[in-house]
Amino acid sequence: MYTDAATQPQSGLSAGGILIIHDHEQTQLKTSLTATNNHAAEFEIARLGFQRLADMLGDDCATTTVLFYTDSQIVNDSLTKHYAKHYQSLVDDLLAAQAPFQLVLTQWVPEKQNQGAHTLANQALHSAEEAK
């Protein structure tokens, strides 16, 4: 699973993209977010991604290993430490969303390796800006 968020600092609008690859099939999701800054948006879209994956898998979560890719250094570091000074409630929410899975392996990737989720996030952000 790949996630990415996009935020327009002037308007405070945020959106995110989720790319799930499961059984050789892609699921692409994009959505507006409630977060008003990029760090919070990265946590929010990651949480939504795990919730969506759990909905897709149902009871199979308990036997599923998830490879989670993010280009957000703070999300990656916070999951490793189970701590983020200014975002602890978001870290806790994300860890709770990961709990149903047997194992979650988080990997930081450069933005250029996260283009699928990045493109979805930007498409959703543009749609939110046009709707405003």
Structure summary, number of beta strands: 5
Structural class: alpha/beta
Gross geometry: globular
| Unreliable runs | none
- Looking at the structure, the CATH topology is Nucleotidyltransferase, domain 5
Which strand-content bin applies to the residues?
25-35%
Over all CA atoms, what is the radius of gyration? Answer: 14 Å
The end-to-end distance, rounded to whole angstroms, is: 30 Å
Helix percentage range? 40-55%
Main sheet makeup: 5 strands, mixed
Spatial strand arrangement across the major sheet: 3-2-1-4-5
Classified by CATH, the class is: Alpha Beta
* H-E order: EEEHEHHEH
How would you describe this protein?
This is Ribonuclease HI. Pfam families: RVT_3. It comes from Levilactobacillus hammesii DSM 16381. One of its GO terms (molecular function) is nucleic acid binding. This protein is α/β, with parallel strands linked by helices and 132 residues long. It has one domain: Nucleotidyltransferase, domain 5 (2-Layer Sandwich). 43% of the residues lie in helices and 29% in strands. Strands 3-2-1-4-5 form a 5-stranded mixed beta sheet. Helix 1 packs parallel to helix 3.
